[in-house]
Structures are given as C-alpha cells and as structure tokens.
Fold Molybdopterin molybdenumtransferase.
Amino acid sequence: MDGLISVAQAQALIERHTLFSGSETVPLALARGRVLATTLRAERDQPPYDRVMMDGIAIRASAARAFETLGTQQAGRPPLTLAGETDCLAAMTGAVLPTGADTVIPIERLVATENGYRLEDDYVFHVGQFVHRRGADCHRDDNLLEPGIRLDAPALAVLASNGAAQVEVARLPSVAIISTGDELVPVEGPVRAWEIRRSNEHAIAGALAARGFTCLEALWVGDDMDATVAVLERALAAHDVLILSGGVSMGAFDHVPAALGRLGVQRVFHKIAQRPGKPMWFGTDVQGRRVFALPGNPVSALTCCVRYVVPSLLASLGLGPHESGMAPVTVRLDTPADRIPTLARFVPVRVRHDASGVVRAIPAPVPTSGDFSHLAATDGFVELPPGREPAETDMAAPFHGW
Ligand SMILES: Nc1nc2c(c(=O)[nH]1)N[C@H]1C(S)=C(S)[C@@H](COP(=O)(O)OP(=O)(O)OC[C@H]3O[C@@H](n4cnc5c(N)ncnc54)[C@H](O)[C@@H]3O)O[C@H]1N2
Ligand code: MOO
C-alpha cells in the first residue's frame, strides 16, 4: 500500500535508532528487576571451604564404627582438628569440615553412647559423604553473571554472595508520556458531555511500569501548535524518550508531526500497514532521543506501545534477546479470526494453556480502536499477517501480552 511500511520494517527502523541508555551504580537493594551492565566475577571459591551438609558427626573414614566426641564444630567458627579414627566432632550443617575429617554421618543414623556415638548396625556409609567440597559450585574469578541479564531473585542472591553491595546497572531511560487533544480532561474532577477522560497515559504507564520502567512523567497539551511546540521542547530537554498519543492523523488540529519537525526531530517513518495503529509516527533527533507518536485511539495507542515502544525501551537497557521478553510467544488460535488483505491485524485475545501445554489464543476483538471498555478482559493481542483468507483455528501467531 502506498506510503505504508510493514510491521517488520517499522520494527527494524526503530531497532536501528535504539541506543544503549548508559549505566549507573546503585545499592544492591535498588538493583532488583534492573538489568546488569557489567560482568560479575566470583569473589572466591564457592563453597569457600569444604562444607558439612548434614547435622551429625564429622569423622575420618576407617573401619571404626564407634567414636568419642571431642567437641562441636559450629557454623561460623574456624575449623577444629580431629585427632584420630575413633574420634569425632559433632558437626552442624554449613560448618567448615574439621581438619583431619573427610566424612559426615547424619545424626539419625547414630546411636548415642556414654562418651560419643556408634553407627547404626546396618548403616553403610561412603567416604566423603555429605561434604560439599570447596570450589564445587564455582571458582574464584569465574564469570558468574554477564551484562544484559535481568536481575531476578537468583541473580540477586549471586550478587549478594559475591560482595556486590553496589551494582552497575543499565540506566532507565527517562520517558515523557504526552497526551494531546482539547477534548481530554484529567481522571479526577468533572467531565462534560463532549469531553473524554485521559486514559492513554495510564495505560501506557502501566505497560511500561510492568516492564520495570518507572522514570515516567505524564504531560498534556491541547490542540494548539505553539503550545504543542512549547511542551514538546520542554519534554525533549528533560527526557530520553517521548511517547505521544493523539494528533498524528489527518485532522486540522493534528499538529504533532509538524511541531516535532520544528524542534529538529526527524521523521523516520509515518504510517504502518496495520490495524489498529496505522497512523503511528516515529522520529529521532541528533542527540538520539526517540519520539513515538502513537495514534490517539486507546486500543491503537496501547497496541503500538506494546508492539514497538516496549521492545525499543528494553533493547536500550542492553537486554539480551532471551532475557528481555522481546521475542513474542507463539500461540495457536482457538477460533478463526478475520484478516485484512493489505494490513497486518492486531487482534485482542485471551490466552489459556490447553491440556497438552499448548497456549491457545481466544480472539476477543473490540468494536473499534476507540472502544476499550472490554479490553481489560484480554491478556494481549496476536499479530496476523495481511491476507485474504481468515486465519484458521490452530494457526500459529505471535502473541504480545499487555
Ligand atoms: N482522514 C483520516 N482520518 C483519520 C485517519 C486517516 O487515516 N484519515 N486515521 C484514523 C485512525 S486509524 C486513527 S487511529 C485516528 C488517530 O488519530 P490521532 O492520532 O490524530 O488521534 P486523535 O484524533 O487526537 O484522537 C483519536 C481518538 O482517541 C481519543 N484519545 C486521544 N488521546 C486520548 C487519551 N489520552 N485518552 C483517551 N482517549 C484519547 C480521542 O478523544 C479520539 O476519540 O485517526 C483516524 N482518523
Ligand atoms: O488504525 Mo486506527 O489506529 O484504528 O483507529
């Protein structure tokens, strides 16, 4: 179709203009959910010493089956020394293995004697049992975490156990979410019959916050060229990324592309062969700031945000392809869905796992891209390529969650 680029072309153009956001150092407690920007090397061998794995006694393995207890090896204490093969030390899980010991017998396989323990009659042990050897998990200076991973629970534990009190993470891009339109009024306060409450900024902020983007400022500007230029100029000075909604189609008051042009934001593309969201505009300026001007209709704005803005923001954190959730999940259609011959179609769906583990998408189309009251019952949308024939039941399609 004339002047329209495909979904894949739009994605590739955005990727080409996506820069790494840079890094910052934060305390470990603030690194949760952030993306690592450096390599973490092991501070020391893990375990750092031969470690007792069961509460019981530590012995030096021999034919002896009865032992005199010389003392107790507690966790957090330096190693005691085992004198002979008929001696033992009571040893606690997590303690260092006493010098001279090589084997641990769990307490439940022991019978107490006057001055120590004997093994249960039928108990057979293996030399070296219940000892976790120093360095069995990792060695000092091993690479444990690579840049570009999301700091989830296991990664945070690894950082902590290696003394990383301060962590170098990708800086979160600062994002302005700008609603445009005279008809828009705030959530709170009165609303007249011809007015609309601003919802796009909350939907967009929700999609971003769910992915860890929290440096967000919401702005509004009416349908006035000079005011639009002024607000966009301030937003460009303060933020890395601008997400606008509304004002990008053909209306007499759709000032956004012209205002951005005046401020030196170069258009990379305008309009994508898709529904909803066809009028989307994307541009950048010489400092590498990205401007996503999304169509105002709420379903269009949110769909474009999830399909294009979210992957670009994730990529700017340096997330690897398998870490980012950027690769969409493939699902199978549960019922047929109409397609459009010349446009890709994004169809809201609910998803469920069937008994065989296949994720099935149940189409739940909305009446128009302005009707979103029932969108909350959906989980995301599937992406159907242009086509004359309906997409049949069981057809595989990429799914993007809200
Ligand atoms: N002559 C043409 N008209 C339109 C075309 C076209 O190709 N030729 N495209 C249509 C399509 S498709 C869309 S989508 C819309 C996009 O228009 P705009 O981006 O200029 O958006 P607005 O006109 O400002 O608003 C559209 C609609 O959305 C409501 N809206 C806007 N912002 C918000 C918000 N923050 N929260 C809630 N609702 C919002 C607004 O009130 C309008 O109802 O253009 C078609 N027209
Ligand atoms: O393509 Mo517009 O984004 O449907 O209403």
